[in-house]
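Justification of computing resources. Each target in the renewal requires a structure prediction run like the one illustrated here; the chain below, 105 residues long, is used simply to show the kind of job we budget for.
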Amino acid sequence: MTVKEYNRSVDEYSDLVYRFIRGNLKDEDRSNDVVQDAYEKLWRHVTEIDYVVVKAWLFSTAYHNMDSEGAISKAPFALPSPKRQPSTPPVIFFFPVATVYLCRA
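Resulting structure tokens:
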């Protein structure tokens, strides 16, 4: 990818990536940081990435940056704990073992 294509990707996709991240994080500052980190990483790998895949690469990188901050795994509300059944002792099954003798002919 060239510098011109990089700048074009900023113009075309930065707003889309920001809105995607902002919708998940609900925090403007953290969303800006995640998008900026994605574009910084793109700049470091600008010679390795083709312009054809840059949109998918940006969304994927931003999503993983968002996940590395723990934003995806944190639920905004407390999930109810599952009801536990009273503990019962495990059932053990015993099966007779057959003895097999091998004979050579």
